[in-house]
Design a protein that fits this description.
Immunoglobulin-like, Piso0_003931 protein, single chain, seven-stranded mixed beta sheet, 9 helices, Bul1-like, 28 strands, Bul1_C, about 750 residues, elongated, alpha+beta, Bul1_N
Length: about 750
Amino acid sequence: MHNQARYEGRVSDDLEESPVYQEIEGDQGSNDDDLLSNILPSYHMFQSTISKALTPIHENFTDKPPNYEVAPVRSQSSLLQSPDCAPSNTISNDEFVLSEQYRNRVIEEESVDTWENTILANVHKLPNLSLLNNPVSQNLEIDIKITEKVCQKGVEPTFIDPSGTEYKQGDYIHGYATLRNTSNEPIRFDMIYVLFEGTLTVLESTRGIIDPSTPRIIHKFLNMTDLFASWSYANIDRLATDNGYPHDWCYNETDPYDGTTLAIDVNRFLQPGVTYKRYFSFKIPEKLLDNICSPHEFPLHLNIPPTIGQPRNVQLPKSIKGSKVTRIKDFSFLDTSIQYGVNVKIIGKSSDFKYASREDRYILAKECSYPIRVVPTSHVQRMMLDNYNENDIRLFYKAFVDAVQAKLEVGRALANTGSIGSRRPELTPTSSRDESGSKLKSLYQTANGEISKCIKNKKESADDYYQYMAPLKKKFLTGPSKGYGFISLSTPKRTYFASYQSPPKYRRLRPHVSATSLDVPFELSFFYSKASKKDIKLPLVKHVTAELVVFTSRSNKYPIPLEISHEMCFKDHEVESKKSVQNFDSIIVAPFQNYYQELRALLKKVGTDVLRIENQLFQDVLCLGSLATKYINLSFQKLRISSQAGDPSPQDLSAIRWEIDPDCHPDYSLFSKKFTLHLDLKDCALKGQKVSYTNCFDYMTLVPSFQNCYVARLYYLKVSCHLSSGEISTVNVPVTIEH
């Protein structure tokens, strides 16, 4: 998680062991950066706010508040961040699947990290009195206002409506929160947090019925705490121009603009009838902490993900409660959402709020959340991919599969079901060429060689192409069909980029970007043996179709143990052997389902004391074998074809001439059509749906491509050539939506 405080300088060794500090560069010369102060919180301040223990303790309010250090004012804004989950360096039997722990599931390891035992890390697990008819909680009112600039005492703020704004990295969110006790008695609290949080939520869903009250997964990948707005032991200088005394609690200090009270006393009581105001400022970071993706630490999982999905059970501020919620069709799972918001949380003890419990414990007395839509720019991901490409993803995946197979080989040998030398075929998402039968094998190898040679003559490697090959067969009324040639559809292996288009509500402050067109070159080839049949008729192309596949994957429990590439979603080279769809489910999920079942069987047969399998490896296999996937196929209502051989354009593919390859082997013939497919994402529509609009982005949203530890969103084109004889050649092409 990220926890924010403004500070500068070297942190103490004690602080380095728990949260991680990372400097986020601000805009040079920014008014916000110059106006806001920075502090280095003392260890006691950190322990009493960010790292406040989960178990209530008695605190002595007679002592003076602790000191804190003032950092140089003219510095870039920085973030105090705490890990969501930090791995332990201790090696023990707990790292392996043990017999007494194994009950058809993986037992989660208990974290010994201090952060995991804090209120802030577990606030979503506390009893939430905002959802209950608790009489004390109902007397608390929280409101949040978003302002254009940094809030200052005595200065009239300019309010803005962020519901029409999409925020990105480096953007500031300014405003203030008000808290009011409407009862006639003081209300005691233990902590007030003012946060900017990014949360992934997966709700329980049974047979399509979603239960919003019981989340299955809550993953807080971003948690920024404003120490100035949150309650703390010291009077902190929020602005660079402030020069306050840290032990001065500023009793009865008010904002002349509206008369609200700016300070909460050391005894932590919200007095009746008093409206308290807490100023806040947050800056969206460029990326997440490295240890937010623990234990895998994948670079692509550290990018800021976009807002996606529909949140449920959000406690909105009074000022926007009841306002119309804009539902965005972004093709997310119905039970899954990634949301950002400015959140205010009041923490108290159950005894102070008359909440029945066996022993005194912390409860979430009141909370309020102001939703903020975040759509990050892709420049960070682009810079990352310059030095980190799909080959790195492929190598890691291969090493992971090798580790799983090695465990299986050991287990089979121990169970006397096979030898260590016997291996299953390696799983790899690339270079997967399936053969379609012994009778066509020889012709396929020759055709593949001739087409590859033709490609190499163009000074390009055959491995740099996505290709689909299918046998052409002559059908007879009596007897089986007989193959006489191959049809091939190929395109250069590259990723195509398109610009993210904001929903209509968010376009008023951002000009509409029209970079949604794609121009994809293809080559349709026909190969046959001259000895196989006389008077060969060249295939007749009936029509071409194109679809944009919106692919979403989600883990049901554990962090995804790999980075997903397009080559895991479809094969780069494929020969039709049977009518089966090759996609992420068949390439990744299904094999790991088999791996998981075999590992379970071996553990039961051999015993966990004999076959030592690390918990992490077992969880990773289970995660991949149980990934949920969702495919939405958007068909292109319009497409244009042009020839690469100088023919007039646009035109029908059947009108483009077949060109013979003069360098082909004399015993064979190779013909090809070269064409370019011109597509525009604005022309997409749900498959089978009749539409009348001219721009699909007025009705749907394609969020930028992203992936994190639990959710991934990728896009790719599915282009098919339909022949009059009934054969269909299909090639998939990677597409990345950028912002």
